[in-house]
Amino acid sequence: MAKVATDIRRTFPKTDEVVVSYIAGLVEDEDEEVDDIVGMTRGMLDNIGEGSKDVKILDDFMNRLIEYLESQSSKRIRKINTATKLDKTIHMRSQAMSATIAMSGKVDLESNTKGQASRVDLNKLAKAEAKLKAKIEKRSKRDLYQGSKLIEQLNKNKQSYEEMYMKVNPLDLSGSAKGKSKDIHLNNIDVSFASNRILAGATLTMAHGRRYGLIGRNGIGKSTLLRHLALREVPIPMHISVLYVEQEISGDSTTALESVLQADVWRHKYITEEKEMNVKMEELDRATAAEGVSEEEKQELDKEKEEVLTRLGEIQKTLVDMEAETGPARAGLLLAGLGFSEEDQKKVTSSFSGGWRMRLALARALFVKPDLLMLDEPSNMLDLNAIAWLEEYLQTWPSTLLVVSHDRAFLDSVATDIIHQHSQRLDYYKGNFSQFYATKIDRAKQQKKEYETQLTYRQHLQAYIDRWRYNANRAAQAQSKIKILEKLPELEPPEQDDSESFKFPDPEKISPPLLQLDEATFGYSPEKIILQNVNIDVQMDSRIAVIGPNGAGKSTMIKLLTGDLQPIDGRATHNSRCRISYFTQHFVNQLDMTVSPVAFLQSKFPGKVEQEYRSHLGSFGITGLTGLQKIETLSGGQKARVAFAVLSMQKPHILLLDEPSNHLDIEGIDALIEAIKVFKGGVISISHDERFITNTSNQLWVCADGKVTKFLGDVESYKKIVTQELQAKLRP
To answer: CA 163, CA 153: separation in Å to the nearest integer?
Structure first.
């Protein structure tokens, strides 16, 4: 086992340790046939992308594996296709057998074998049963690992958006979908991916026109569920069109506006075909009008023209039904709402950064208007200006919306229902997130009360039984209580949510000033000034939130405060005794992916025993064996928790947080908010999360148009002003 595992790690260093262990275990399983092992191993390495990098490397590894398996062939089971003779048969007493058949016409094996000593070796039987159980479990894991065939195929073939869209959403020209319900109700669905079971026997219910917020802990499988829905691995009716926005679009020479228009694949296809038909008509007209054309040729040309005209009529009717002519205006409004100026809309998509390409992907999805639109953390790449517009836009969304988000304010504004994914099931709540939270707390209290009542009742029964079961006068009553107790369903305690408690140690006090910008101006050249005449003072008791459109210079201001950038004019003051901890949007770059969280803390802050590092990580939600896994195997939320654990060990006077909530789930954000509330140092944060800002800051600064100014109001007031300004701008 160790030999195979070592070979995999050396040949394919990026393979997940879970996969390595599984393959190594498969190889050592004496009940598995060589062909099965080889096929499974190659499939796994190919599916996770390791094998596809170099076919020769994979072939060489497979040859080594086959040689190893052949060397161990004496341990393998050789299946024989002939019938197996029973070593020990059951001998029935003929008289008993005849009597049984005479009375009932059936053979009672149990009664007929009574009185005969068992010839089965119980030790061998136990070993065989254990072996069979292990084999069944292993095959079950293999089925789970195979997981999402369609998704793996998509990743392998790199199908284009257009190909996948037409495959998943075939156009219904027959009108057969008219009058059909677009509600979704699916019972007993199972969803798995890799070796994880996401849902088991769950019910998925979504009413057309409702807006659902899908919530759950990091790693519970929310995004996986959305992918399965998008690719119809969960059997959504074909007359319901679906679209999932997961990642940014790839940049090319297409303009932003044209990219949005092309997102409606069928619209784009029929407009292109209409142009082709018009060109064809012009060619046929010229051919008909040409000199020397015979009557017979003209008749053929007229017949062809008639076919083209018929097809052209069909296309134009379809385009009218699609309202295709309104496309450019609708696309322009969507892009403007998401922050694209008229000049930006004419730029090629390859000129935009990842964040702006994500906005493009969102605009494309909104333009298509599918029956079921699925958004995965749509606010992560948006500023408050764009979020304010998106919230208002989605409130009038005409079809079904399913959105994954950790932003409570966004869910409160958009969602009409909440779906809570946990324990391999889906629970449904009417109302927005705040209503869900209140209902969930009430439900938990009720469940606890019912559990305690049932427990008290059972304890009362048991006490009565224990007291009177051997009393001759009360034995019958005790026996009655025993029967009542036996008939009661199994009592399980209500589920308890895991609580998290981040903590930043209180720093020693130091005299001001700590961090100051005094008339600071910064630009990468005198012609391109980003920030001008900025004045800000950060103290030990500061709670400052910086908001404004993306690209306005918020992160630049943070870097001026840290000293990573120097102003070209004005002054930046940094207290030499002030320790600054900086959480960046690209915090992953500050972590060593090749080591475990415990090892990473040991390298950064030596001198403690391992248990201290593990305990510290545990307070940030990195518990158990997670602290010993390589950081590269952790989820985005877990990596963020490791980053916060590092900041905490730096014992900062000032926390500088750039979009700290992006990768945390709702429970993680709550824990971070509570930690900041009791932190004795200063905090300056850049965030788009309204609830986070409201609960962690008492000063709101707006960064826009090269200036940083204090805003006299709260986040909600700012969003209202932004929305009103945008509406006035977009009004024709």
So the answer is: 13
Q: Does residue 426 sit in helix, strand or coil? A: strand
The residues, any chain, with a CB within 8 Å of residue 65's CB and separated by 6 or more, are: 4, 7, 27, 37, 38, 41
DSSP-derived letter for residue 234 is S
| Contact (CB, 8 A) for 538 and 546 | no
pLDDT digits (tens, 9 = 90+) for 173-184: 545 667 789 999
Neighbours of 336 (CB within 10 A): 18
| Distance in angstroms (rounded) separating the CA atoms of residues 724 and 323 | 28
Q: Which of 266, 304, 272, 267 is nearest to 285 (CA)?
A: 304
Q: Are 684 and 516 in contact (CB under 8 A)?
A: no
Assess whether the region 147-251+369-431 and the region 515-730 belong to the same CATH fold. yes
> May I ask the CATH architecture of the domain 147-251+369-431?
3-Layer(aba) Sandwich (3.40)
The whole model's pTM is what? Answer: 0.69
Per-residue confidence (pLDDT) for residue 542, from 0 to 100: 96
DSSP-derived secondary structure for 602-647 = HHHS-SS-HHHHHHHHHTTT--GGGGGS-GGGS-HHHHHHHHHHHH
- Identify the helix (H) or strand (E) that includes residue 487: helix 475-487
Decide: residue 655, CB within 10 A, 0-12 exposed, 13-18 middle, 19+ buried: buried
Structure-block tokens of residue 322 = 């699609």
Please tell me the distance from the alpha carbon of residue 361 to that of residue 367, in angstroms, as a whole number.
10
- Cα gap 654→682, rounded to integer Å: 5
322-331: long-range contacts, CB 8 A cutoff, minimum separation 24: 322/264, 322/266, 322/267, 322/270, 324/267, 324/270, 324/271, 327/261, 327/264, 327/267, 327/367, 328/257, 328/261, 330/367, 331/257, 331/260, 331/261, 331/363, 331/367
Residues 350, 356, 359: CA angle, nearest 5 degrees: 120
Q: Positive or negative, the Cα torsion across 385, 387, 390, 391? A: negative
Task: Name the helix (H) or strand (E) containing 529.
Answer: strand 528-538
What are 415's two structure tokens? 């969602």
Single-letter amino acid code for the residue at 607: G
Distance CA 343, CA 359 (A): 16
208 in helix, strand or coil?
coil
pLDDT per residue over 173-230, tens digit each? 545 667 789 999 999 999 987 667 899 999 999 999 999 999 998 878 898 899 899 8
d(CA 379, CA 412): 13
- In whole numbers, what is the pLDDT of the chain averaged over residues? 82
The conformation of residue 79, written as its DSSP 8-state character, comes to P
Amino acid found at 331: A
What's the token pair of residue 636?
């985005």
At residue 74, the 3 state secondary structure works out as helix
The CATH number of domain 515-730 is 3.40.50.300: yes
Backbone phi, psi, residue 277, to 5°: -65, -40
- Residue 497 clears pLDDT 90, i.e. is over it: no
The full set of domain ranges for the chain reads 2-76+125-145, 147-251+369-431, 252-351, 448-486, 515-730
Q: Are 589 and 617 in contact (CB under 8 A)?
A: no
Sheet holding 515-525, edge to edge: 528-538, 515-525, 569-574
Cβ distance 255 to 347 under 8 Å? Answer: yes
682 bridge partner residues = 654
